[in-house]
Amino acid sequence: MYGHRAKRFPKLPSHRRDLQIPFPFRTTKAGDDFLLWQSASRHILVFATGYNIRLLAAMQTWVMDGTFKIVPQWYQQLFTIHAIVAGKLVPAVYCLCTGKDIATYGFIFQALIDKAAVLEVDLNPDTIICDFETALIPAIRGYFPNMRVQGCYFYFYQAVHRKVGELGLKTRYRQHEETRRKIRMLLATAFLPVPQVDTVVSLLEAGTTEPITTWMEGWHNQLNRKAAKGHNGFHELLELLIAFPPFKRVKSAMYGHRAKRFPKLPSHRRDLQIPFPFRTTKAGDDFLLWQSASRHILVFATGYNIRLLAAMQTWVMDGTFKIVPQWYQQLFTIHAIVAGKLVPAVYCLCTGKDIATYGFIFQALIDKAAVLEVDLNPDTIICDFETALISAIRGYFPNMRVQGCYFYFYQAVHRKVGELGLKTRYRQHEETRRKIRMLLATAFLPVPHVNTGVSLLEAGHTAPPQPSLSYTKIN
Question: Could you tell me which residue ranges the MULE transposase domain spans (predicted)?
Answer without folding.
Answer: 62-158, 315-411
